[in-house]
Design goal:
Elements: H1 2-18, E1 33-39, E2 42-48, H2 51-61, E3 66-70
Antiparallel strand pairs: 1-2, 1-3
Signal peptide: 1-18
Protein name: Kazal-like domain-containing protein
Keywords: Signal
Length: 82
Amino acid sequence: MKLIILVVFLAFLGLAKSQNCNNNCSRNEINYLCGKTVRNGREIRCTYKNPCEMDLHACQKREEWRKDTTGRCTRDSEECRR
């Protein structure tokens, strides 16, 4: 019984931590950048309004995104629309 309670508690703790993404991005700041990540062995590039928006997306998707270039991507990947 104690083991079950411990497992449930740890699962709840993990869930709480996973949803702790900072969403205080300024809606007014426009500083476009092209971010990239690798998903299933494929490079994905998406345009973000600012670094905060990219970091928020990375946190929510639990992925590591990095700035590729300043400004919009030459071409956004299909996955960006999802």
